[in-house]
Design brief:
Elements lengths: L3 E7 L5 E7 L6 H7 L18 E6 L9 H7 L9 E3 L12 E5 L5
Parallel strand pairs: 1-5
Antiparallel strand pairs: 1-2, 3-4, 3-5
Cofactor: [2Fe-2S] cluster
Keywords: 2Fe-2S, Iron, Iron-sulfur, Metal-binding
Protein name: 2Fe-2S iron-sulfur cluster-binding protein
């Protein structure tokens, strides 16, 4: 049984990459994106406390687990949150997420 899934990632410049992500290591999407050298701060270390790992789910949102109250509350603090925005730290990679398309959320500079 294959343990890798395909994730399509669009960076803030509009470039899209198709990446192979392992699902057998217990990684969150945030940890995978950081390991893939995407510009994600993740200053709270994945505790849903900072929203610096916010991504927009472009395809596959219906496959994701329901958002926790903590994630919802953190996203609610962002001025430009979209209906499809999620915290990458709260998405554990799993086989059912194969084909997920995400876009790195715009950051205030």
């Amino acid at each position: 049984m294959a343990t890798d899934i395909t994730i399509h990632v669009e960076d803030r410049e509009g470039n899209t990459a198709t990446l192979s992500a392992p699902t057998d290591m217990g990684l969150s999407l945030m940890e995978f994106l950081k390991a893939s050298e995407y510009d994600i701060l993740a200053t709270c270390g994945g505790m849903a406390l900072c929203a610096t790992c916010c991504v927009d789910i472009m395809e596959g949102e219906e496959k994701l687990n329901e958002m926790s109250d903590d994630e919802y509350a953190m996203l609610d603090t962002l001025p430009d949150v979209l209906p499809n925005s999620r915290l990458a730290c709260q998405i554990q990679l799993s086989p059912e997420y194969d084909g997920l398309r995400v876009r790195l959320h715009a950051m205030d500079n």
